[in-house]
Specification:
With about 270 residues, this protein is mostly helical. About 60% of the residues lie in helices and about 5% in strands.
Length: about 270
Amino acid sequence: MTTPPDDDLMMRPRGISGAAAFVIGVVAFGVGLGVGGELGMYMKEPEIQIVEKPRDLNAEELTAACAPLLQTADAKMEEVNAKVSDLQGQVTSRETEVAELEAKVKKGAKLSADQARRLDEAKKELGSLKQQLQQAEEEKAQLVVQLAETQTKLDGQVVETEKAKGDATTQRWFTFAKDAQINICEKGNRKVLGKCRDTVDLTVRKFRTEFERCVRDGQEQPSLKESTKGERLPEYARWLDNDDKITKGWYILLCDPSLPEAGTVEAPL
């Protein structure tokens, strides 16, 4: 099993197995999520908790050990998404209020004392809200990076564990499907994200046979990509589902030229 570099998310103490060392790192990440309730803490180096393990964890045990902490991280993401959405709504409301009052002034109307005071207050509130929104969006971006790195390391460790048992194909598929949900579903509250992830999961399933065939044949693993307007996609690319606004514009690039579904497709306008 490949030993992670020193500057990786988790550090591997001497005498600790690879999977156990990864669990230690994720536990430390979970500790970081809970400290102070501040998103800015996520990017600080977590305290390493050393837990002795007599043997390497198998894929199922590794996933089970990390699941609660990853669920907590998902909850934090939903929380910051809700915060960003709320601030965006408040900013829009204040912008509308300021615009309406300023429009009256431009038309020559004289504002009452209360209206003039409210205009001044609304402008100050708008400036403060925009600052808060910018900070929240920066915090969200940091959390997205942290979660993606943690998920990638978990997926990578699970894949290595499966390889040790001689079959990583299935796990590589689930990693791909999970990454598809992360890449496509970036914004929204719990309900919106849940619906988005379910839609993506159901859509990518129809490509599982082709995906596993590429992996088993030793060819390049299929990849998920988002098209640009007017782009002519590579041969053997197939749309996920352009009839659904969630997956519209996303395609999977397959590897085997003998697949009957292969062909050149045009990006949607």
